[in-house]
Design brief:
Blueprint lengths: L3 H29 L20 H21 L5 H19 L16 H25 L5 H28 L4 H36 L9
Helix pairs in contact: 1-2, 1-6, 2-3, 2-6, 3-4, 4-5, 5-6
Protein name: DUF998 domain-containing protein
InterPro entries: DUF998
Pfam families: DUF998 (PF06197)
C-alpha cells in the first residue's frame, strides 16, 4: 500500500503543474482571443464564438483539477480547508462547463440569461470558496507555520480585492475597473494555490527523507 505522505507529495506536485497549465491556457485565451481586453470579464474568452474558447475551457478545467489535487495534498487534520477547496473545484468546473453569452452580462446593469447567471454564480462561489480555504488555513494551528503564513498573505490580498470586485460590479457594472480587479483577484488565488502546493510538496518530501515516513506534517 502506498505511503500517504508520498501520495500527498505527488498530489501537491500535480496541483502545481495543473495550476501552471491552467493559468497559461486561460491567459492565452484572454490575451489572444477577441474579447474587449481589460474592460471585460475573463470569462468572455470562453464564449461560443471565440476561437480560443477551447483553450479557455481546458485552462478552467485544469484549474479545477488543481484545486481537487490541492485538497488531496492537505494533511487529514485540515478537513475544513480541503472541503472548501473541493467546493471551489466544483464551482470552477461548472463555470467552465456552462458558457455565458457574449459579454457575459450580469445584473443589475445588464439583462442576463439563465446560463449567464449559472456561470457567474459558479465563478463567484468558486472564488469565495478558495478565499475561505485561505482563512481556514490561517485559523488552523495544525496547518503549521509555513502554510498559515502563505494563507495569511493570500487572504490579506484576496479579501479586499473580493470586496472591491463585488462593490464595483454592483455600483459600476462591467468595465475597466471590474476587469482589472477581477484579474488581480484571480492572480492572487492562482499564486496562492501554486505556492501552497510547493510548500506542501517540499514539506512532505523533507519529512519522508528525514524520517522514512510522512512523520511530521509540512510547515512545522
Amino acid at each position: 500500500m502506498a505511503d500517504p505522505g508520498v501520495l500527498r507529495a505527488a498530489a501537491a506536485s500535480a496541483a502545481a503543474g495543473c495550476t501552471v497549465a491552467g493559468v497559461v491556457a486561460v491567459t492565452v485565451a484572454v490575451v489572444a482571443g477577441p474579447g474587449p481586453g481589460l474592460t471585460g470579464y475573463v470569462s468572455e474568452a470562453g464564449v461560443t464564438d471565440s476561437g480560443y474558447a477551447g483553450a479557455y475551457r481546458i485552462g478552467v478545467f485544469a484549474l479545477a483539477a488543481a484545486l481537487l489535487l490541492l485538497a488531496a495534498a492537505l494533511p487529514p487534520a485540515l478537513r475544513t480547508a480541503a472541503a472548501l477547496l473541493v467546493a471551489g473545484a466544483a464551482g470552477t468546473a461548472l463555470s467552465g462547463a456552462v458558457t455565458c453569452s457574449t459579454g457575459c452580462p450580469l445584473p443589475p446593469f445588464e439583462a442576463a440569461t439563465v446560463a449567464d447567471l449559472v456561470h457567474g454564480g459558479a465563478s463567484i462561489a468558486a472564488t469565495a470558496a478558495v478565499v475561505f480555504a485561505m482563512l481556514a488555513l490561517v485559523l488552523a494551528p495544525a496547518a503549521g507555520r509555513a502554510l498559515r503564513r502563505v494563507a495569511a498573505v493570500g487572504a490579506a490580498l484576496a479579501l479586499p480585492l473580493s470586496g472591491a470586485v463585488g462593490l464595483a460590479m454592483l455600483l459600476a457594472g462591467r468595465g475597466g475597473l471590474v476587469g482589472v480587479l477581477e484579474r488581480l483577484l484571480l492572480t492572487v488565488a492562482a499564486g496562492w494555490g501554486l505556492v501552497t502546493a510547493a510548500v506542501l510538496g517540499l514539506g512532505q518530501r523533507r519529512a519522508i527523507v528525514t524520517n522514512g515516513s510522512p512523520g511530521r506534517e509540512p510547515g512545522l
